[in-house]
Write a structure and sequence with these properties.
Length: about 80
């Protein structure tokens, strides 16, 4: 049975809307990006967990991109050419 994770510090006692607002402020304040260390400090999780989440998100994007490409490659190419992607 998987170990239950502790809630992230930024989420404690907040509504989903408040959490989204806080995360949006964090993202906007770092337009050049953030290191895994900075992310782990802000969210309150280890750098290893940040890396795992990043890798999982990349796999999901790759899978979605492949599915989109299979379904409608012409439409995808037009979006790329138009700068929408």
């Amino acid at each position: 049975m998987p170990k239950k994770q502790k809630p992230l510090k930024i989420y404690e006692g907040k509504t989903p809307e408040e959490c989204r607002e806080k995360l949006n402020k964090i993202v906007k304040s770092y337009p050049e990006g953030m290191s895994m260390d900075e992310i782990s400090e802000i969210i309150g999780i280890s750098q290893e967990r940040v890396r795992q989440i990043k890798n999982k998100a990349e796999r999901k994007f790759r899978k979605a991109f492949i599915e989109l490409k299979k379904k409608d490659s012409d439409k995808l190419m037009k979006c790329i050419e138009d700068g929408e992607i």
